[in-house]
Amino acid sequence: MGFSTFLVLAVVAGVLLGNVPETLAARRDRQQQQQQQRCQRIKTPQCKDVGLPYERTVFPNIFGQDSQKSAKSSLKKWEQVIETGCSAYIRPLLCAAFVPACPRKSSQTLPPCRELCMKAKMECESQITESPLEWPVELNCDTLPSYNPERKTPKCIHYEPPKPAHCKLHKEIGPCSTYHPFWYFDRVAKTCQTFTYGGCLGNKNRFETKEACIRTCGQESTIAPGMLSTTLDITTNEATTPQPLPKVLERPMDQTVFEGETVTLNCFASGALEYTWRRIAGPMPEHKILAEEYSREGAILIIADMMPEDAGLYMCIAENQAGVEESVASITVLVPPRIVKFPDSALIIQGETLELKCEFTGVPPPKVYWEREDGQFVSQRVNGTESTVIISNINDIQTGMRFTCVGRNEAGLDKRFIDVEVKVPPYFTAFARNRTLNEGETADFLCQAEGTRPLTITWYKNGEPLVADGVRTIFFDNGTSFHITSTTPSDSGRYTCSASNTVGQIVDDVYFQVIASAALPRITESPSNATIYIGQSIRFHCQASGDPVPTVSWLVDGFTIGVPPLDRDMRYSFNGTDLVIDHVNVRDAGKYTCLVTSPHGMERVSAQLRIREPKLEMETAISDTNVIIGDDLVLTCEASGEPEPSLTWYRNGLPINETLQRFSLEENSLIIPILTSKMGGSYKCIYDNGVLTASSSAMVEILEPTAITPASSMPPPMSNSTTATPQPSGTNDMSDTDLSELGTAPSSLMELKLRRYDVTDTGIPDLFRGWADVQGQGAANDYCRVIEPVEGQYQLSCVLAGSEGEVNYTTNLGFEIGERNTWYMKDEDGDGRDDYCRCMREAGQGRWVYCTKAGANGFYGNPDAEDFETNEVSFRAPGPGEELKKCRKRRVDPFFGLPETLE
């Protein structure tokens, strides 16, 4: 039962029974009820449903704040520290301080425990130092009470966050073997132990330090006894301090009521001997006072039928021998708005000025605004209690438009409607546009208009009324649609639609042309679907006819390829009828469309290009062998693949027919009869399917008959190698080199890193993308392209040959790509690596061709590429200065750096 209810009952009881002194027990019960009445559910978002050991709060807190609204505002300043995740204790600490728990038996709120304060402050010290916040003096950890788990009744709020679920997992070394020392939490021993982690695919129960393990898993989650209920069961000894002056403990609350409602004001002060009620700046409404009771336990004032003239400030005065204490409450009486003057209807002609007025009353003065049925904004002019809307030159309101005048204040709203009738001249809502059709096609002309009904639609051709024959020319929908089938050139001309009503008339023209069949662009030879292997070439052919001769262009998957193509592996025939793609890759697969256009129209046809991955596998390799003079040598080398490979034999780096006159080839075998002492050396078989090569090498030693050595005492054979590699453009073929002359086994020769054909992000169309050599291996096997990892910020990224992943060699984010069609990749500084060059403006230097150097680990300007500071504007490209200053006007080959055009 609240204090106000208690006093109301006391008034009635006092009238019937007289004043009965309140017992000490009754007073304690009343204080406890008052305390519970002030308890409220936590609504502050920072502390609601976050795992706190209580659900209800009470104010004031230790900062003197008396509402959750004030606490919410203060906690919002600490959100940046909480969201860093610096400590699991920081949120419970701040919530315990700003939104304290609601106790059961004591009027005093509980502060947070010292241990909770110290943990949160220590773990978040750096984040707090970097923020503009200062640690509150009220949260001085040294002055807070300590947590005693043995106490049944806690003196402070204690909290331990629950351990993460991964603290219960067993340690997991993982399948990898790059061992690292780590710590894990042993859930049986409840301690942190060391173990060796393999380096991959483990679980989260691993920590780099023991301190991190203990901080995360080292303690069981604890909640102080007595903290599990929604309110705290707290009993403390209350020390009473005599007050020389009355102190208002329950002040009369500010209230807002509607007219005619009743107001109840309560006031209680400690040490008060007498109470008095007064009204500031006005007389008390004596005839409306239902009850006015004073006692040492408090005062109550009940006023009925409140009106606006009764609003104002009401003061409670508490007195004793030491002096007077005052407390003031503000009473506001609301009067709903009432619109007292409003027109019944309005008739307006489009183009005239509309004026609407409405008059209103209310307390507080209502906010008045006009609304239109179509949702458009309505401006208004307010003069005292009158609001006027003036709309000049109305030209977009349909008949029956409704306006609403709304008056709104805290007490409610009132509204009135008025229907405005507008007569509107005709206007077009849909109309056919100029068009060109081919002979024999069907033409549809649309003319739709709106305005005040009735509306009349009339058609004209070349100024003469149009008459439909009902067969080839037909009207639909009362003339709003006109239809012509099997069009001929004679149907060409100017077609006019006229719409009229009692207000006005409008006309519009459409020009129609029919093209004779002989002049239309036609595709006479179409490209065909094709399936080829990676690395092969394809030619799409497209022939067209028409008058004038149509232009042929090509698209891939709906995107224009461009003239010339940006991809250096694409090229056109001299008139564009053929599209040739050399060294196809997986990214070249798709739908290729031949588009022929002329002033009379267009036609297109598409062909699908499917790319298959070539295969080549060595099944039987040759090996080192010793042969006696006079015996036959038989070497068998077998491989399979797609496309079908061909076999070539080499001896000492040269084709077999250039080094030997006497040999035979049978299927996959090389047969040399009656060996002589000069027929030894390095033998090699190479399979080639036009895309991949696979090879196997062996050393053949010719022995004299007396030089035969038992197998057990023979030295180990020389190493043989079998390789399968693609044939990148520009790669030297080692088949012409006599390996025996190099003094090394074939397997010791450095092999080129293979191109990657599994790239999924091929880059942004129309920006740089293609093959380059940024590793300096002498072959353009690295795929480089411009990507956009973050919207509006470019980056040049290369997929290195022989690597994994697609972003392993990059520039900095926000890379300057330069002027369009001026970029290229070429080794401009002579270090063997291709640099990225483009036309751009450098601060204070004007435009030039600037290059970004390719470094050992990435492009210059990327801070992760080199150990020393670099710049993406690494150096100027060499060349004639007068031409390079005009780099913006020249078009450059993206892979050779040579200007193709200079405007």
UniProtKB/TrEMBL annotation:
InterPro entries documented for this protein: Frizzled_dom, Frizzled_dom_sf, Ig-like_dom, Ig-like_dom_sf, Ig-like_fold, Ig_I-set, Ig_sub, Ig_sub2
Keywords assigned by UniProt? Disulfide bond, Immunoglobulin domain, Repeat, Signal
Point out the signal peptide segment: 1-25
The protein's GO terms of the molecular function aspect are: serine-type endopeptidase inhibitor activity
Q: Does the keyword Translocase apply?
A: no
Specify where the region named Disordered lies, as residue ranges: 708-742
Q: Where is the FZ domain?
A: 34-159
Supply one GO CC term from the record.
neuron projection
Identify the residues that the record assigns to the BPTI/Kunitz inhibitor domain, covering every copy: 167-217
Which cysteine-cysteine pairs are annotated as disulfide bonds in the entry? 86-124, 117-141
SUPFAM superfamilies for this protein? BPTI-like, Frizzled cysteine-rich domain, Immunoglobulin
Which segments constitute the Ig-like domain?
A: 246-332, 337-421, 426-513, 521-610, 614-701
Q: Does the keyword Signal apply?
A: yes
- What PROSITE patterns does the record tag this protein with? BPTI_KUNITZ_1, BPTI_KUNITZ_2, FZ, IG_LIKE
Q: Which PANTHER family match?
A: FIBRONECTIN TYPE-III DOMAIN-CONTAINING PROTEIN, TITIN
Q: What is this protein called?
A: Uncharacterized protein
User: From which organism does this entry originate?
Assistant: Strongylocentrotus purpuratus (Purple sea urchin)
